[in-house]
Every structure is written in C-alpha cells, then in structure tokens.
Amino acid sequence: MANLQHIRRRIKSVKNIQKITNAMDMIARSRFNAARDALLSNIPYVNKTKEIMRRVVSQMRGREYEHPFLKTRDELIAEQQNADGKFLFIVIASDKGLAGSFASNVFKEAHDTIEYDGTDTGTSMDDDGDDENFHKKNFDALNAVKPIAHRTQKQQRQMNATGGVARAAAHGGGSSSGANVSVAREYNDAAYIDGIEIITVGRKATTHFQQRGYNIIKSYHGISERPQYKYAKEIADLVMERYASGEIIDVTLIYTQFKSAISCVPDDVTLLPLVTDDYAKASANLKEEYIYEPDVMSILNEFLPRRLATRIYGAMLHSAASELSSRMNAMSNATDNAQELVGRLNLFYNKVRQAGITNEINEIVGGANALE
Questions:
Q1: Which CATH number fits domain 4-115+185-356: 3.30.70.920, 2.60.120.10, 3.40.1380.10, 3.40.190.10?
Q2: Reported confidence tier of residue 196, pLDDT bands at 50, 70, 90
Q3: Pairing of strands 248-260, 263-272
Q4: Could you report the per-residue pLDDT of 179-193, keeping only the tens digit for each?
C-alpha cells in the first residue's frame, strides 16, 4: 500500500510546480502582447520597403545597369555551380527553453535547408504555379545532376541556397525517387561544413550548431524576446560586406513566422542575391513608373541595406512573438496538466486513506470477535 506521507509530498510538489508554470504563463502572456504589437506596427513598413524594392528592381531590368547583389535565376545557378564562396545562414531561435517545440522546429527547418541534397518529394507544380519543366530545363543544362522536374519553389530555393547542385554533382548526381540520398547529410563531413557559415540569434541556436561542428561567425544572445533594430542593422552590414567581398555567395534567413497565437510556422527566405526573375513576376501588375533621382543605381545602393536590415528585424519580431506564444501555450498546458494531476493524486490519496481506515476497522472488529 502506498505511503500517505509520500502522496502528500507529491501533491505539494505538483502544486508548487503549478504555481511556477502559472506565473511563467502570465509573464509570457504580458510579453507576448507587447511583441505582437511591435510586430503589427512593423508590418506596414516591411510591406512598403518590399514594394519600393520591387519598383526599383523592375526599373533596372532591360537596362545597362548591373549590380553585384542582383542576379537572374540562370546567373544564380551558374554562379553557385562554379563559385568558391561559402553559404551563410542566419538562424533565429530562442535564448531560453520551456517554449514547447519552438526551438526544435527551427533547428529542423535549418537542417532541412542547410543539408538539402536535391531529392524529390513528388510535388508536380511549384508553389507559385511555375511550369514544372522550368527547373528541369535549367538542370539539364548543367549536365551534372539528373533531371528533376518535380520540385517545389521552397525546395528549389533550398537547392540554390545550399549549393545542392555542386554537391550532388560531386557525389554522382541526385535522385528523383524520393530516397534519402546521403549527400552532405553527415554532421561530421568536414568538407561540407567548411563551406557553411552561420550567424545565430539566441543561445539555443548557438549551442545547437556549436555541438555539431558548424562555423558560427557571429552570435547574439539576450535579444530573442526583445529584438532591437540596431542588431538587425549590424547583421545586415556584416552580410553585405562579406557578400560584396566574395567570401559568401548566398545568404539565407531561417526563422519562425508568426501567424496567430496558436500557429507559428518555421520558414526560410533567401536574402542575397536578389533574384530579378522573382521581382519581375511580382512587379508585373505595377502600372505606375516612377522617376528616380539622381538615378536608379544610387537609390538601390542607399535603399538595399535598409531593406535587408528591415527584413532581418521583421524576422526577429516574428520569432519573438512566436517564441512567447509558444511559451505561453506550453506553460498554460503545463498548468492544466498539473491541475489534473493534483486531482488524480487527491483521489488516490483518499482511496488509500479510506482503505487504511477500513483495514483498521476490520482489525478492531476481528479483535472484538476473538475476545467473545
């Protein structure tokens, strides 16, 4: 039979944990409201910078302008096939735990992106409705990888962003069967890891990638819940400097996109280079044509750093809101589970206590009958 004192201690322990999780829930809830307000306030600015960038890039198409940060898709694939530069990934996670699967989802998305080897998943059309033969035509021209006609837009971006074409060629080509090809998927592949650089935001991200041997060139701690624009600008300046020098040839941002208090989705976006084909498609419905002074190139040189910093800062705000909502939900669930466990322990305590009383009564009655 269970010890009543042990059960009482267990109930007391669960109640203490419930108080802690309830307090953390309230703290996360108050911080979440501030993070959500900051995100909502920043969205119009991000959208406007996106529209301006779309207009500026559309003005440069078909003219004599050339910019090192602007590439067509054909130029991008050819450059990443032959260039010696590294691939940079900016991973935004959390400084603290107790946020459910928030950090693990970010790391899963990061590894899916960094280690993507070009294997097919069977999707027949790009996410944006592109002709499925577009990528097949481009990759056939490389004569290095087997034709892959069924690749989603996200997979194509991952393939470009991680140099999957070059690595698949070095390992004898990719596969369209959906099998798990062991191309650059081993954590201890030194040659592969040497071609990757990572900037981390959050202690969890830094610890995770350090343990796996990746080269972390910069890390930021203590700002995951309260992002500041100055850190985003610092990252943007570092990225542009290294890209302009040729040390890196691609920059991918990996973060958690906030959709609602109960829905947060990890995502990855390519920051550099800017693919002019995508901007051309997005600017097809723009009717107005602006006049830029002094010229389009000067405007782009001044505006591009701000656009990158704004994009990184927006991702930080999305990640902060997602982290706090995940922690809020996790602590709320923990509090409810603790309440349920206390109820079950109280019921068990009463059953054991009643069984003990019944046993004592039986002993008294038995003793009295023996004396008669």
A1: 3.40.1380.10
A2: confident
A3: antiparallel
A4: 222 333 334 355 556
